[in-house]
Amino acid sequence: SASPGSPAALDGSFLLSPLGGLMGAQAVLGLLVWSLIAATTYHLHAAYGWVMFVSLFFWILTLLFFVIYLLQLHQKYYMIPWPLVLMIYNAVATVLYITAFVTCAAAVQPTSWRQWDYNRRAAASFFACVTMITYGVSTFFSFRAWKGLGSNAATSQVSDHA
């Protein structure tokens, strides 16, 4: 547990936790989505601009949250309601990834004159769907953590600030 005056330390158990695993999966899947879209002529189609924005924006923020939790900075800055922040972040990411997935899937045209663009866009649609699901699962776990389900509220308050 990191105290406000101590230097940041790596939390190896975070990587094995459901939150760490889901954030890692979101980072990898989000990278796949935006890199597959970036490898096409997405600038010619406005729909892919939205997919690119959503995937890149949440990829960067997920990496930021991953580093915050990996370095235990969420315990150092305990005045921020991290479970609530993470729940809202995951819920917003889920909703926007739904729109990105639907937009990406609807814009894939099998009669594209560039076959590699079709393949990459179809793959990006698939990975956007899987990414959306991982954010949805993270929203569920974040909601449980925010509500304190599965732990005693008194013990979680003591262990967070001790």
Offer a concise description of the structure.
This protein has 162 residues and is mainly alpha-helical. It has a domain at 10-78. It contains seven helices and no strands.
Describe the structure.
The chain is mainly α and 162 residues long. It has a domain at 10-78. It is built from 7 helices and no strands. It has helices spanning 12-16, 18-38, 46-70, 73-76, 82-107, 115-147, 153-161. Helix 2 (18-38) runs antiparallel to helix 3 (46-70), helix 3 packs antiparallel against helix 5 (82-107) and helix 5 packs antiparallel against helix 6 (115-147). The chain is elongated. Mean pLDDT is 85; it is low at 152-162. One of its GO terms (molecular function) is structural constituent of myelin sheath. Its main location: membrane. The chain crosses the membrane at residues 12-37, 49-71, 83-108, 123-143. Residues 14-147 form the MARVEL domain. This is Plasmolipin.
From the N-terminal CA to the C-terminal CA, the straight-line distance is 8 Å
Q: What is the number of beta strands? A: 0
Structural class: mainly alpha
As a whole number of angstroms, the C-alpha radius of gyration is 18 Å
Quaternary structure state of the chains depicted: single chain
Order of helices and strands: HHHHHHH
Our count of helices gives: 7
Quick one: biggest sheet?
none
Strand content: under 5%
List low-confidence stretches: 152-162
Q: What is the typical, i.e. mean, pLDDT?
A: 85
- Shape descriptor: elongated
Helix content estimate = over 70%
